[in-house]
Amino acid sequence: MNNWYKEISEKTDSILQQIKEHSFIKELMAGTLPKEVFYFYINQDTIYLAEYKKVLAQVGIMCDDENDTQFFLGSATGIINVENALHQNFLKDEMTTNEASITCELYISYLSRMVHTTSLEEGLAAVLPCFTIYKQVGDYILANQSNKGENPYQDWINTYGGEAFANSVNKAIEITNKYASKASPERLEKMNKAFEKASKLEWMFWDSAYNKEAWKI
Ligand SMILES: Cc1ncc(C[n+]2csc(CCO)c2C)c(N)n1
């Protein structure tokens, strides 16, 4: 399998399309997303990123090529620098809870289980949608918005659209493809499942913010 990512992104394209059509993304693009919904999202995303950086570090130390290790450890550090700054910018004093929503809990627990108890290839496949979906969504919004000067969420949009982020996403794809090229058909099938599930969890993450998801009890 030489271009595993190309195949799996075609197979899961309907999830990406549903993300682009989600009201959260539509309203983010229009700049009309209610502030409290965006704050809910950023608040949960701060909780998510605190765990995700550990997940990336774990994937990094499992890679046998030191360049790959460096890439994932660098990405984990990048989260601390870039994404935290973005969050501080938007969140100010509005961080209202330290408790993960059901979906946030599910997503970070799933990723943590994948990187700690399955193979490196499955771990790579599970963490990849976080990179690729944000890239696709960032580019989609940049290409289709007509309000660049006045969208209150422009800094968020600019972080995920454009060149700098593209390089990092391409590197993550390249590394995952490299390990996939040596994987057995059974392992590839498990990678496909992991990529698909994490993609669905990306949709659910936005959906849960849009609905300000609360614990049932
Ligand atoms: C739920 C959720 N999924 C993906 C990202 C985007 N993201 C988080 S860390 C990282 C890699 C290094 O920057 C990327 C692309 C997010 N913020 N929140």
UniProtKB/TrEMBL annotation:
InterPro entries: Haem_Oase-like_multi-hlx (IPR016084), Thiaminase-2/PQQC (IPR004305), Thiaminase_II (IPR027574), Thiamine_Salvage_TenA (IPR050967). Pathway: Cofactor biosynthesis; thiamine diphosphate biosynthesis. Its EC number is 3.5.99.2. Pfam families: TENA_THI-4. GO terms for molecular function: thiaminase activity. It catalyses: thiamine + H2O = 5-(2-hydroxyethyl)-4-methylthiazole + 4-amino-5-hydroxymethyl-2-methylpyrimidine + H(+); 4-amino-5-aminomethyl-2-methylpyrimidine + H2O = 4-amino-5-hydroxymethyl-2-methylpyrimidine + NH4(+). Residues 11-211 form the Thiaminase-2/PQQC domain. One of its GO terms (cellular component) is cytosol. The keyword Hydrolase applies. Keywords: Hydrolase, Thiamine biosynthesis. GO terms for biological process: thiamine biosynthetic process; thiamine diphosphate biosynthetic process. Catalyzes an amino-pyrimidine hydrolysis reaction at the C5' of the pyrimidine moiety of thiamine compounds, a reaction that is part of a thiamine salvage pathway. Belongs to the TenA family. This is Aminopyrimidine aminohydrolase. It comes from Flammeovirga pacifica. The lineage of its organism: Bacteria, Pseudomonadati, Bacteroidota, Cytophagia, Cytophagales.
